[in-house]
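Lecture notes, part 5. Sequence design as translation. It can be helpful to think of inverse folding as translation between two languages: the language of shapes and the language of residues. The source text, in structure tokens, appears below.
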């Protein structure tokens, strides 16, 4: 879930993964010790302290590797006593232009002040210092890119320290990570493409000197990933502008670097993220010759300090300075701290706002829900046209980002693609439809709709009235690298006026005709099934009679209970294309020891139920399988009460995925009921043959998937997977024939379906 490379096979972890593992291991150890030794610390103070001391140690390791400070500094400190105080004195006693003195510019003042009085045992800190220098962290920071450090920190920030009973420190996922819906991070190439396309379009007509003055904002910067990529892109333009192989005069490169840093702006509500963004930008500015124990020649420390302190701010881009006074009931001080400081853009960046706004806004916004606090909901409803009860933070940050761009500037975002279809995205889509959207790149989640999570969307626009078509591209993650290199993406031009007010499907006129033709020759699924489709029970996860497989097996073994007394439960995450249902949860029947009878008994769990087709949504596509066990369905699972192999093949086809994405709105019983099913004419030999062939292929798919689960060897699984892919293509071809989809239509259907 972190998006970091993991290495291949049984070989060693990637350097990024190894560094993350070591940081997480020692964060737990340092937090436990600090909580024990400082019983008055609150959770946010403990987070600030642990994060601060770990940042200082990692910064010392990086500076030592890069020759910015003597390379043995970390090793000299580790065996001594008073390690905490020695590290602090290194930074406090450093001269004003040294790398260690400038580190103070990265800290928030209240965070630094609260950390000074905190006590930490030497043995814990010594272990962390030795761990940073051990083979467990195989990073050569002389050449380790700071952008990769940003990726490590992005994964690191998914957890935070919480204080439990007895002032015990534990690590938990942050509210933002819990509320993100389990969506995987985008591929790194998507960030590269976003920044390269956006800055190339904005700076393309400018000289390298003028391009360095482009004002770039990330209003939800996190650890500064997009800002670092922007800095590298603009620096690359500067270097490429030096003709005839000339090298910049001594001192000119650092000056240009700081000019570029001076045009980067970032905001984030998390002070930890702000500190890391400043630190990584500082490391970028300190890149000089190996052995230079200070700033690279020509670096202006005054400008550097201003960039780090004034242009990377701690604040919540969504809420303004009047938030506390306008909201009722007023938020508690704890809630205000969790939400972040309200952002006053005019006061924070007067030179930019006074001249019309930023030239470029780039963002990869968080996707958690803002919460249900009445005061915040009223504030969002009053201040955002894109407000919707179910909207996530990405929607509000996108509207805010667009409002901060000057006339003629460019906005670009990288988000999960669900807002394109979901109902909560309707108000945002209405806003965007009035603007000049230049490009939407839909990055698919995987092939065949089998991947977990969802696809991603790169949106690029100008905040001016629409005057020409929108370019839409659907690409696999692996295709983004070549697109970044060539900067010549191909796609379909869509008339924004054709998008409508519902889910955006980017359907050309020819495909509206295809859908009309399909509806003429098909019948709604509810008529084909001749039964009632049902939706799973979302409350079943909270049923007190629910037991896991291990408990069920123990009760059967030790108490000689009848296995029929346990009803299998299937949740959305367990539904896979054609894969056998393998429940991990069971609803217990009446009279079992230790199992409440007032909850599960009401479901009559011992009564058998007919089999059928289970449907869920993964990767922005319907995913269906056959169930003959009569399992109970959990939330986000739809049940078709007919175990029909012909229907199962159609629902799992690429054409079905195309119809699903064109319809928008997500998987629901209503969508399934209206799904167009081609009903064969069994008096016609061709229809009968196609029906029977499809049933045969689906039977083969079910068997192949079952064998894949039983096969242990990688070689055996590889052979089965190749047969699955071949059979899948044959099913797609048969479905195209059933619905009369032509060759040209097939090509675009597959492009649209991803």
């Amino acid at each position: 879930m972190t998006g970091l490379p993991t290495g291949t096979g049984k070989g060693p972890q990637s350097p990024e993964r190894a560094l993350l593992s070591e940081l997480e291991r020692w964060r737990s150890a340092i937090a436990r010790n600090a909580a024990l030794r400082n019983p008055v610390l609150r959770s946010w103070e403990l987070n600030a302290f642990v994060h601060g001391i770990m940042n200082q140690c990692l910064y010392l390791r990086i500076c030592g590797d890069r020759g910015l400070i003597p390379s043995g500094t970390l090793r000299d400190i580790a065996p001594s006593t008073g390690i905490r105080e020695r590290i602090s004195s290194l930074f406090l006693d450093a001269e004003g232009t040294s790398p260690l003195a400038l580190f103070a510019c990265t800290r928030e003042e209240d965070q630094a002040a609260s950390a000074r009085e905190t006590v930490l045992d030497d043995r814990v800190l010594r272990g962390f210092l030795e761990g940073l220098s051990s083979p467990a962290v195989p990073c050569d920071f002389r050449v380790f890119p700071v952008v990769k450090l940003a990726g490590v920190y992005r994964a690191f920030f998914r957890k935070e320290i919480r204080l439990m009973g007895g002032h015990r420190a534990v690590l938990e996922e942050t509210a933002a990570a819990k509320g993100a819906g389990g969506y995987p991070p985008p591929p790194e190439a998507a960030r590269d493409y976003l920044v390269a396309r956006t800055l190339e379009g904005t700076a393309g007509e400018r000289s390298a000197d003028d391009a360095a003055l482009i004002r770039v904002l990330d209003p939800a910067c996190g650890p500064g990933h997009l800002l670092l990529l922007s800095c590298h892109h603009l620096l690359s333009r500067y270097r490429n502008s030096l003709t005839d192989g000339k090298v910049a005069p001594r001192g000119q490169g650092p000056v240009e670097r700081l000019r570029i840093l001076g045009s980067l702006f970032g905001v984030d509500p998390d002070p930890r993220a702000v500190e890391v963004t400043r630190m990584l930008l500082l490391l970028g500015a300190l890149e000089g010759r190996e052995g230079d124990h200070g700033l690279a020649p020509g670096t202006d420390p005054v400008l550097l300090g201003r960039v780090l302190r004034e242009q990377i701010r701690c604040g919540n881009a969504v809420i303004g300075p009047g938030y506390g006074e306008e909201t009722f009931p007023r938020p508690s001080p704890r809630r205000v701290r969790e939400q972040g400081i309200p952002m006053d853009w005019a006061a924070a960046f007067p030179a930019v706002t006074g001249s019309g706004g930023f030239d470029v806004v780039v963002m990869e916004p968080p996707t958690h829900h803002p919460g249900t606090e009445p005061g915040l909901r009223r504030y969002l409803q009053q201040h955002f046209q894109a407000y919707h009860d179910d909207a996530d933070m990405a929607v509000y940050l996108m509207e805010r980002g667009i409002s901060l761009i000057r006339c003629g500037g460019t906005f670009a975002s990288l988000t999960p693609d669900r807002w394109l279809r979901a109902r909560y995205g309707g108000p945002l889509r209405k806003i965007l439809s009035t603007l000049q959207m230049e490009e939407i790149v839909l990055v698919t989640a995987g092939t065949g709709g089998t991947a977990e999570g969802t696809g991603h969307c790169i949106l690029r626009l100008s905040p001016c009235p629409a005057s020409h078509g929108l370019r839409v591209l659907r690409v696999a993650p692996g295709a983004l690298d070549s697109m970044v290199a060539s900067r010549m993406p191909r796609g379909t031009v869509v008339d924004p006026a054709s998008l409508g007010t519902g889910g955006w499907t980017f359907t050309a006129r020819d495909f509206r005709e295809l859908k009309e033709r399909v509806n003429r020759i098909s019948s709604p699924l509810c008529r084909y099934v001749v039964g009632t489709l049902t939706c799973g029970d979302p409350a079943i996860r909270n049923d007190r009679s629910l037991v896991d497989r291990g408990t069920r097996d123990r009760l059967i073994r030790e108490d000689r209970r009848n296995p029929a007394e346990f009803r299998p439960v299937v949740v959305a995450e367990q539904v896979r294309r054609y894969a056998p249902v393998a429940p991990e949860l069971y609803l217990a029947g009446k009279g079992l020891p230790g199992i409440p009878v007032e909850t599960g008994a009401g479901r009559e769990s011992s009564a058998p139920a007919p089999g059928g087709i289970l449907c869920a949504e993964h990767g922005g596509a319907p995913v269906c399988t056959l169930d003959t066990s009569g399992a109970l369905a959990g939330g986000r699972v739809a049940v078709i009460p007919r175990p029909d192999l012909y229907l199962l093949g159609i629902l799992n086809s690429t054409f079905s995925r195309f119809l699903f994405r064109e319809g928008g709105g997500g998987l629901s019983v209503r969508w399934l009921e209206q799904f167009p099913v081609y009903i064969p004419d069994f008096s016609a030999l061709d229809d009968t043959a196609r029906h029977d062939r499809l049933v045969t292929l689906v039977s083969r798919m079910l068997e192949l998937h079952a064998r894949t689960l039983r096969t242990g060897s990688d070689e055996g699984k590889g052979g089965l997977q190749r047969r699955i892919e071949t059979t899948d293509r044959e099913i797609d071809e048969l479905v195209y024939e059933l619905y009369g989809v032509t060759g040209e239509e097939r090509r675009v259907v597959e492009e649209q379906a991803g």
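The translated text above is only one of many valid answers, since several sequences can fold into similar shapes. Residues 507-533+641-754 form one domain.
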